[in-house]
Design a protein that fits this description.
single chain; about 180 residues; alpha+beta; 2 domains; four-stranded mixed sheet; 7 helices; about 55% helix
Length: about 180
């Protein structure tokens, strides 16, 4: 089963899923090639062609796996803390790898409301933070929404911010949530 984008543990489950797909496709391709070779005693047969066509989905799975390998999932305890703070208002995403402007960026968690996006980045990197803020605000301005993006480095800080946002703000627009789902990898 393919993991759900934006859910807790997504990156971990996606790595396992892609590794399984990669192994299965390799085994099928090698099996087809060997069957064709053993049956005809030559590599010039239709099963060789079919086996080499299996390289295409294998390459796609390998590229996706390489994209996910450097990133880790948000710990379940941290997600529970954020989920408790969010309650039923707003939308909480975890384990986000997204491509808003052609770059691949990673966020551990994000809480989205009508006027604000609060993000958790557990591995601080000033250049990466600025890219995330710039890309998200620029992309939303193009869509006609004014969203303020804030980066937090501690789960407790983000949980406190989520509580303050959820008390006074309304849930994010469907347009913003659709945009987030669209740019998630």
């Amino acid at each position: 089963m393919n993991p759900v984008k934006g859910s807790c543990g997504y990156i971990r489950r996606k790595k396992i899923f892609l590794t399984c797909i990669l192994i299965v496709v390799i085994l099928i391709s090698v099996g087809l090639f060997l069957c064709g070779y053993l049956a005809t005693k030559t590599s010039k047969n239709i099963l060789t062609v079919v086996a080499f066509l299996g390289v295409l989905p294998m390459a796609k799975a390998l590229v996706s796996l390489i994209l996910f390998l450097p990133h880790k999932s948000l710990p379940e305890d941290d997600f529970r803390q954020l989920s408790d703070a969010a309650g039923s208002t707003g939308t909480l995403y975890a384990d986000m790898i997204f491509t808003p402007c052609g770059r691949v960026l990673h966020l551990d968690a994000m809480y989205a409301s009508r006027t604000e996006a609060a993000c958790l980045l557990l591995a601080p990197n000033a250049k990466k933070e600025q890219q995330i803020v710039d890309d998200l605000t620029e992309s939303m301005k193009k869509r006609g929404e004014n969203i303020h993006v804030h980066i937090f480095h501690e789960t407790s800080e983000l949980a406190a911010r989520i509580q303050s946002i959820s008390e006074k703000d309304e849930p994010a627009s469907e347009q913003f949530l659709e945009f987030l789902r669209m740019i998630l990898v």
